[in-house]
Records
---
Amino acid sequence: MIIENTFIGDLKVIIPAVFGDNRGWFFESYSEIKLRENGIDIVFVQDNHSFSAKKGTLRGLHFQNEPMAQTKLVRCTRGALLDVAVDLRPNSPTYKQWFSVELSAENKKQLLIPKGFAHGFLTLTDDTEIQYKTDNFYSKEYDCSIRYDDPEIDVDWGGKVEPILSDKDLNAPFLKDAEVMF
């Protein structure tokens, strides 16, 4: 397992060691011991699994406010997606900056997103599945979102994007109007 730091503190790309032969492949998608050896001490309590039928589906940018904020360990298990994390911690030197990485079933990369970040993704293929672990349970009361196209954040979703959106994401507030409590 290789853990790569990004330019945003505590946001990490995790690349598993994949062992393959004529039968296929095997890898550890999660190892508490290996993460702890790399200074990551997180207890995950919930697994989530999402399917998007069409290329161009955009989900996000989502987060949960304190006290129900979540750390996420995200991976794509079918298809490919552009995964995005936005730093919403007002005291962070990278406040309002974002990071993106392509996650796919083929590259098997994962993104570790700490508390205090919004998360979203854009599917790059039809029939895309994403799975992620969280260290806190879902809470409708603390669930929040901000617009995917907020000009204050200016995420590059890979060119001109006419995404397929839920009503929730289409009507999400801009950051300046959102209630962010980190």
---
Amino acid sequence: MIDTHCHLTHTKFATDAEDVIARAQDAGVTACVTIGTGVEDAGRARQLARAHPGRVFATAGLDPFSAHAAGDRFGETFDELSILLEGGGFHAVGEIGLDYHYDLDSRAVQAEHFERQLDLAARLDLPVVIHVREAHDDMIAILNAHPRNRGVIHSFTGSPVEAKRYLDVGWWLAFNGVLTFKNADVVRESARFAPLDRILVETDSPYLAPVPHRGARCEPGFVVRVLAALAEVRGATQDVVDAATTRNAVALFGLPAHSADAGEAP
């Protein structure tokens, strides 16, 4: 299993990140993709990945929150992000995207920030990890205008109709602990609808812990529960879903083949 989206540099893991990574491995999670949100956080993500070769992989991006926090310095911060990514050691640009739920930048400014990073990802030939909340129509329009990009809609919670729109433009969908929530029937419908070769599993640790851990700090090891829920929804065996989602993660993020099993790190 590969947890394709976690935040191992989050302050909630400040005192026991090493133990968290070890527990994930004990649970059968062979690799984790830790998401860098902001330049400093992305730098820490790369350091963590380098400390765990073949087990932890890093991304870097200016999500809607860190882009908003940059304020008038967004241009300088974007340049710093570009230099960081060009230095190597990252497997995707992200998470980046649009968030209309919170009082952040205007929609036009968010779109501008997002598209600049899409162009950067295309230039560097890196996949993209997308954050989208209450902005599906605008997101689809932007992705249609950027056909060179590829990547995943992280923490997908939309309907099958929305899922189809993303799938039709070539994007992947990632499901997490929300699949196990009592009121998430629409998400389960989407997980059943999406082709097996276009879906990923994630935790979004330390957020969105699945049942029976809901309300607790989420960890990458909990992706086992996500995988079980996904298999149940699809009426498939866990082995089949595990093999497919792991293969998908390796292909999308350009991970080494050994990250798909419990083999030796390089």
---
Amino acid sequence: MGDVELRSATVLADDELAELFTATYEGYVHPMRVTADALRFLTRAYDLDRAASRVAFRNGEPVGLVNLGLRGPEAWIGGLGVVPAARRRGLGRALMVAAHEEARARGVENVWLECIVENTQALALYDALGYGHVRDVEVWTLGGGDGEAAECSPHDAHRWIRTHRTEREPWQRSDESLAHQDGLVGLSVDGAAAVVRVVDGRVSVLQLAGDSSPVRQLLAGARSLGDSLSVLNLPVGHAARPALAELGGTVIVRQQEMSLTL
């Protein structure tokens, strides 16, 4: 790997880490641009631990990173990437091993991550590190439309969801992630409830539970709150999946949810 050093992510300022995050996803299956504000949101909402996360430096220049989220005995890989010029030299594996060491030192028992199905190189790395496939999840998007959103208290909607949900929420939409976010909107119809967040005309469905028909009714109303609606990492067996398809929704990303027992 040459002259490579792994350091805590705390050595970089927010704007520097955001710039590196963006650079590591260049040429990726789904490139993304991360701003300093977005990084701060991700850190807060998903409990990314900057001290436990690692940045790879080669000859003094940052060339890769791994973000580690921590919640008691559970951890989550909130992004692993290497800049194009430094790829295929073992940095990804080194960063993951370092993240595992940091997690283990903090009493973590299980590490979670999601990997896009087309990213066969990353899937091979995770398999070699001992990760097992848990379930398939999808990112859905749906255009805005006319309708009436049945709004209620987000607290009441969340209480109903906790009682009636049948699927474990992914890390990004877990109860802990909801607790870190503001501007939440509750939605409720007979037989279904949802908690959403609307930012710049985009409706993000954070949690949703119920039977297929009332879920469809709920989503038809939810999309009227913005120009588009999305659901991140929806399990393939979730009742919202056929409802989204009936409403004209599209799957834009398919991922494997994976876990490792330390």
---
Amino acid sequence: MSDNDPAGRRGFLTTSLATLGLTAVGGRALAATGQGGAVAAARAGLAQTGGRVAHRDVLGVADFSQPSRAPRFHLVDLVAGRVESLLVAHGRGSDPDRSGWLRRFSNAPGSAATAEGRYLTGDYYMGRHGRSMRVQGLDPTNDNAYARAIVVHAAWYVSPQMARERGALGRSEGCFAFSQADVGQILERLGPGRLIVATKL
């Protein structure tokens, strides 16, 4: 199968996903919507994390190879065999020219950048963005996340309207920032003790 044969790749991924019991979202094959890579990243993340993740049913995969205007945070439900994709912002330090594309990852304190790696979701709290959730970095590439106060929260600068009108979302301080409309679902479905993978697929 050639790497330049999209139809061949889709067929291969669809077959692989069917084997995993993950077949379709909204009547379209996962592979055809670009979500097949999120499923693979979710499974790989779980395998690498071992027993540190208490709940292995639903995971989040942030694909920062996509622009911020695209729904690139994938909620992967391994039990139901579904993937839902939502908007998420990246850090301003990862995109200093406001292009809408993540240019670099950084784990450095004060970088205001998004850090690549696996995150374990933690406890809920009420902060300046409302109900939010702490995360802990599990890799050397993101192990400063807790100290940097990287969290999951809602933000006014994340919305479909902003993505349409400006062609890009606003930028966070490195946090996983979601729209007001989506954050409740993220907090409910992920909850403490689950895995988030931030990468470029």
